[in-house]
Design brief:
Blueprint (H helix, E strand, L loop, with lengths): L2 E6 L11 H4 L4 H15 L2 E6 L3 H10 L6 E5 L8 H10 L3 E5 L21 E4 L4 H19 L1
Parallel strand pairs: 1-2, 1-3, 3-4, 4-5
Helix pairs in contact: 2-5, 3-4
The chain binds 1,3,4-trihydroxy-5-OXO-cyclohexanecarboxylic acid (DQA).
Length: 149
């Protein structure tokens, strides 16, 4: 069965109350529940981790090797700063989808640069909670194609 790791970085535990005009009112628990519901329909298995600590995210990426076929990551502000998370993604060679709730390119200039984008399959941003669902759809469809190949 296709296994996908869903990682969330710093401050995403505050979703729902954090700047709702930017990030919406959906909580991370709501997002994870909706993803889980969809994953059941699509017959794949999801694991979730949220951490405010860079090292914990890096450990999770390392431990994903051999366990997960895809990683979906919203690294929060670490997206813009973390060479270490980028190197971890590159090292494990698990296809990784970078996501954001907000359109980082339409916001402050420091959010326009992603350290992770060059080592990810692609980036989905600006679709609110739906960014997570779109990433899930991509991973499942690609996973199926690879299974059939
Ligand atoms: C975010 C965008 C980042 O710039 C920000 O630091 C976040 C959330 C998003 O989902 O829109 O924490 O990753």
């Amino acid at each position: 069965m296709l296994r996908i790791l869903v990682l969330n970085g710093p401050n995403l535990n505050l979703l729902g109350t954090r700047k709702p005009e930017i990030y919406g009112t959906t909580t991370l628990a709501d997002i994870e529940q909706e993803m889980q519901r969809r994953a059941k329909e699509l017959n794949c298995q999801l694991s979730f981790l949220q951490s405010n600590h860079e090292g914990a995210l890096i450990d999770a990426i390392h431990n994903a090797k051999g366990q997960y076929q895809y990683i979906i990551i919203n690294a929060g502000a670490y997206t813009h700063t973390s060479v270490a998370i980028r190197d971890a993604i590159e090292a494990v060679e698990i296809p990784t989808i970078e996501i954001h709730l907000s359109n980082i390119h339409a916001r402050e200039e420091f959010r326009h640069v992603s350290m992770l984008a060059p080592v990810c399959v692609g980036q989905i941003c600006g679709f609110g909670a739906m960014s997570y669902m779109l990433a899930l759809q991509y991973a499942v469809e690609m996973g199926k194609q690879n299974d059939e190949a």
